[in-house]
Write a structure and sequence with these properties.
6 helices, alpha/beta
Length: 187
């Protein structure tokens, strides 16, 4: 298995027709887009074939780019519960592919991703695309907003990480904070 790099983030906007992905390499105040595109699944014959393709392609993308972090958008409840279930399956398969590859997983709501990129959790897809292009100084080639949404998911993770919310020397969850600071717990 390839050595994974923790400064490379694979962002995914899950879908069963079109799945967007974007990869950012980052450091202190440095961002470089390594890839940004979509996986087109709409011509595949059935849901099982689509899910298999997502699994295999995500593994290939991780292997090719040595991404150590996955930042993925959570499915949201809309008007159609069937759509949410399909999105959840696509997200689950992408996460499973990343787990098999040894990648660290982070999930964010669409509102949190939009807020990280535009400052507004209710921003439109067009606003997200425009702003992520400016922030990363990268012209998004795809005509699909799925690709820009995926880059936005990757960027959201980097904002959280660089702002000290995920300090590698400190606790990364409430559970680890509590176990490392028992003196701060009031009973």
């Amino acid at each position: 298995m390839t050595q994974l790099r923790k400064n490379r983030v694979l962002g995914i906007d899950p879908g069963t027709q079109i799945l967007g992905y974007g990869i950012i390499e980052y450091g202190p105040n440095i961002y470089k887009v390594l890839d940004c595109s979509v996986i087109k699944l709409n011509k595949l014959e059935d849901d099982q074939t689509k899910l298999r393709e997502i699994f295999l392609q995500i593994q290939d993308i991780i292997e090719a780019n040595q991404t150590g972090i996955l930042s993925i958008e959570l499915p949201f409840y809309g008007k159609n519960p069937q759509s949410m279930l399909k999105l959840g399956r696509a997200q689950g398969v992408a996460i499973a592919a990343a787990i098999v590859m040894g990648v660290e997983i982070h999930e964010f709501s669409a509102k949190k991703i939009k807020k990280a990129v535009t400052g507004n959790g209710n921003a439109s897809k067009e606003q997200v695309c425009d702003m992520i292009s400016r922030l990363l100084n990268y012209q998004i080639d795809s005509k699909y907003y799925d690709a820009s949404d995926a880059l936005a998911a990757a960027y959201c993770y980097t904002c959280q990480n660089q702002n000290g919310l995920s300090d590698q020397n400190g606790p990364t969850s409430w559970k680890s904070f509590i176990s490392s600071h028992p003196d701060r717990i009031h009973k």
